[in-house]
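Example A, followed by Example B.
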Amino acid sequence: MQITLPNRFINASNLRPSEVSQDPRRDSFPAEELIIDARGTEFIRPAAVLWCVIYPLLARSQGRDCRFIVPENMGVCVYLQSLGLFDILGASGVQIDVRGIGRRVDSQVVLPLTGFSSQNEVEKLANSALDSLSRSHLGASNMHPFVSEVFAELGLNAVEHALSPIGAFGFIQFYEFQNGRRFLCGVADGGIGIRQSLEKNSGLKARIFYDWDAIELATRERISGTGSATRGIGLFGVAEDMRSPKHQLIIHSGIGRMEIRENLGSNATRTGLFPGTLAYASIPT
């Protein structure tokens, strides 16, 4: 099985549905080797990097052989190396050839791609990120605690609800776009997804038919698969914060995807598969 990554890889929605329709969380995932071919990729955004972690690691968790063919564009390779993608894949048994790819310390990577699976680990990473931001000259200092808190909320959601066989992965990066400078926080897991998580609450099951239904519900106040009246605050709070000017939150779970930002309706759409859940916050500074 081979998946060819696009020239400009922004997020999992850019992938060809015919290539990624197979779900690596399922026992029916093809037994042959998985090859992810990134040779033609000349531009990649951090949200797409999270797919590059989750998809092959899920295949490995199913006992499948996996090869990641790195981009021919050296600049993209160096970026992926600095973010930590190649180290994670290699440590998990994914075949990857990184000969000739230099390492650099990227001051804009506040927290490189890091795996976690517990509340304690999330809190330590959030505190470490805040310490790193406090020592840096990245963005406005009054935004540093907010960035750390957003990462913590997204990370806690992943470890509490995903039931992921590979844990969760996250990063924080300072990024300069054409329209301004931003902090990016991304968290992704290879777990059961938002729909199955909410369906554990019998009071919600009859209201959920699709992944996009579930995402819309999950961003409302006090909606939780636990059924507890004191839960369902974290993701709702992040979603509300992202309705501020120039903020953005993207949630992609299964075949549902939702974007939240100022003056945008809260309707999720059908899209290509992300096996698990990805949450990606873009915060201006």
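Example B, a separate protein, is given below in the same form.
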Amino acid sequence: MLGLLFFQWFVLMHGCGHRALFASRRLNDIFGHIASIFCLIPYASWQYIHAQHHRWIGWIEKDPTTRALGEPLPSLFVQRIMNFCWRFWIPIFSLLFGVAGFWDPRRVAAVAPSVRQRRRTLISMLLPAFVYVGLIALIGSRFFEIWALAFVCYLSIGDPVLLSQHVHVPLQRTSGQPVRPFSRMEQDQYSRTIIVPDWVAQWILLQFTTHGAHHAYPNIAHYDIAKVPFESVHAIRWSEWLTAAKGIPAVRLLYENSNDTGVIL
């Protein structure tokens, strides 16, 4: 239950990052920072990187969340580790994505270079770090007995959910040419909506898997997104997606798409 709550705090932070959870900008930022403590993703870092994701989704080299997938494959040793972890449900992917994407000040500074943005980024990194150091000092090893398994459960939920949203969908390449961002309605073709039972969508995942509609209407809070009449181009039942995705090695799932493998997810 604690691991699930960590995931739900991540969803709430996501909504705050879009300033969609509250009408007040300040309340969104306050609760976004609070949520970041539970999901261990710095709020300002997330906000800046994620804004660029929504701007440049579809262009593999421009979107900071997919840029690495357009680079050469990692070493064969790393590929084997990735495939092994994906096959045996070892949740490393959202962890590595979070650490590399949101805890690296240099990477965040590439999209948020102003002094104010760098200050916000640093504060958002220090806040959860100070809280966790304080809890460990106060509780000692008991903290890890409570937190560690819950955090693994959180990652285990996050891996399939986060990977389902965009991987293995054909993306465009700029080929070094100037390009324009895709409109919000065009972004659905580069997103995937996972269909789950209504009660799971509403109460467990907080409508986070309704991803095509989210890209079309990013300023609508997740708790209202299901009310929007929207049919996603890439919509698939969760069991079908998970079965098919687990049948593909992680390297092919991440670095290739349905045009390469013939597997429609």
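On Example B: The chain has a mean pLDDT of 94.
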